[in-house]
Recover the amino acids of this structure.
């Protein structure tokens, strides 16, 4: 989702802190971006949002990372080359308990000199909130998701019940503060190659689905009017394959059409595509050839995919649990990434490659496999001593063994014609 591409007319426009901005202004490769997932709370119910049907892991309040732990995580990743933090999932970062985490992330990233990109629905992004977060991190960029440009379309696409339609009024009221922030912060800078670029700290965002194609031109108009960046994404990068299947998991032909449409918007003076169709940009994708994006949740997990919480180094290898035993942060991060990459690589080899696991033709089988693997790893992890010098080697050895065991178990179950539990897509 963070793979920003531009062509012709829009090529000189970038969002501060985006992977494309880093590539143009910092001339670096490899691990560059931390996608930091927050909690699931949200004040809207967008039809393409995967959280509506997600099976979110059950955590105790103490499992959530504290402000000091967020600072420690960000500092560890900065040493590994991370220059930017992106909050684009799970819920609305300015709503409820998520706000405390967002403020902590803004403070930590600001003190460490990291860029911060915040995806929000904009309902709570008023002048006071902008002032607070920009004060904590002057390099914060706001990306406001609006999947409908008028009241009726917005209410429909954002899943607002009659009692919550006032959120549209909040968006309209807040847009003045967005405009003022954009006017104050947009500027022209010269990149590492000597080319002048327009750099933005504010953008509008629309996910193009079968249900809101008529809104794209209107959103382009809003972006031109504000002279801000317009981020256009296709449904393969957001949404759940179960919910609203006609819009989120369209036919191959429809998906190709929507993806191409998003890519074409790169040629719009008011827009630039962020299409992920050519390959997932997350670092745990075995075919990842673009900017490395590593994903951490507020529970200290490394996630290969922000839309599939059960995948990767799950609760059996959470950072907070490791910190309780003390040890080397950098080694934990390296191991978590290696483990998550090994899991994804095994899945792609076992079930066939696809750029997006959420759209994978064998998603049901993958979910069954991951659940069997995680169950086994939860047992194995209990026998591993986190304070031991051989802990990380033991984790990777257990992962390799249980990946093979899970494959054998599922093959035996399928061969016997026995129904396997947990065959839903979440």
């Amino acid at each position: 989702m963070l793979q920003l591409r531009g062509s012709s007319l829009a090529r000189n426009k970038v969002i501060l802190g985006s992977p494309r901005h880093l590539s143009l202004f910092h001339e670096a490769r490899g691990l560059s971006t931390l996608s930091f997932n927050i909690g699931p709370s949200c004040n809207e119910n967008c039809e393409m949002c995967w959280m509506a049907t997600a099976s979110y892991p059950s955590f105790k309040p103490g499992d959530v990372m504290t402000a000091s732990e967020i600072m420690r995580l960000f500092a560890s990743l900065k040493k590994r080359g991370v220059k930017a933090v992106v909050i684009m999932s799970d819920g609305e970062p300015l709503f409820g308990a998520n706000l405390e985490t967002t403020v902590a992330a803004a403070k930590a990233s600001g003190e460490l000199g990291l860029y911060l990109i915040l995806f929000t629905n904009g309902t709570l992004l008023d002048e006071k909130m902008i002032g607070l977060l920009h004060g904590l991190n002057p390099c914060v960029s706001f990306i406001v998701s609006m999947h409908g440009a008028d009241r009726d379309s917005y209410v429909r696409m954002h899943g607002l019940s009659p009692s919550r339609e006032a959120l549209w009024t909040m968006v309209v009221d807040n847009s003045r503060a967005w405009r003022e922030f954009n006017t104050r912060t947009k500027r022209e800078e010269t990149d590492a190659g000597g080319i002048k670029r327009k750099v933005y700290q504010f953008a509008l965002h629309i996910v193009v689905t079968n249900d809101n194609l008529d809104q794209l031109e209107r959103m382009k108009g809003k972006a031109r009017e504000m002279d801000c960046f317009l981020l256009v994404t296709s449904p393969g990068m957001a949404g759940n394959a179960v919910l609203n299947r006609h819009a989120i998991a369209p036919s191959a032909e429809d998906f190709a059409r929507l993806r191409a449409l998003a890519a074409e918007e790169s040629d719009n003076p008011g827009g630039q595509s962020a299409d992920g169709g050519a390959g997932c940009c997350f670092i745990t994708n075995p075919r990842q050839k673009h900017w490395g994006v590593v994903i951490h949740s507020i529970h200290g997990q490394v996630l290969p995919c922000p839309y599939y919480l059960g995948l990767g180094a799950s609760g059996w290898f959470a950072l907070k649990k490791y910190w309780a035993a003390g040890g080397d942060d950098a080694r934990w991060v390296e191991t978590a990434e290696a483990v998550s990459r090994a899991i994804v690589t095994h899945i792609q080899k076992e079930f066939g490659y696809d750029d997006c696991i959420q759209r994978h033709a064998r998603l049901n089988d993958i979910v069954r496999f991951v659940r069997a693997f995680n169950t086994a790893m939860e047992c194995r992890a209990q026998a591993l001593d986190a304070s031991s010098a051989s802990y990380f080697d033991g984790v990777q050895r257990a992962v390799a063994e249980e990946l093979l065991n899970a494959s054998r178990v599922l093959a035996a179950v399928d061969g016997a014609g026995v129904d396997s539990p947990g065959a839903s897509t979440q």
